[in-house]
Amino acid sequence: MTFDVAIRESSFMSAIILFHSDGDILLAWTQEFVSTDPLVGEAEAAPLALTKASDLHISTLLFQGDSQILMESILLSYLQGSTTNLAIP
Q: Which pTM was predicted?
C-alpha cells in the first residue's frame, strides 16, 4: 500500500493505492483536505491508508510513503507500542 498527496492552491488531494504482491492495483481511494502544507497532507493521508487496510482486515502490509519524516515517525510510534498517536516533529 502506498499513499501520496498532490498540493493544490487551497487544498490537497490524497491518493491511497493497494497493490497485490504481483504489482496489480487492487483498490484505490482519494480524499481532499483543506491545507497547503505538504507534511500535513502526508500526515492526513497515512492514517487514512492504515484505516483502509484495517477495514479490509489486512494483517501483513508493505506500507510506503515518500515523506521520510512521517515514515520515521510512524515507525517510531509503532516501536514504542502506540497504534493511535504519531509523534510528528
A: 0.77
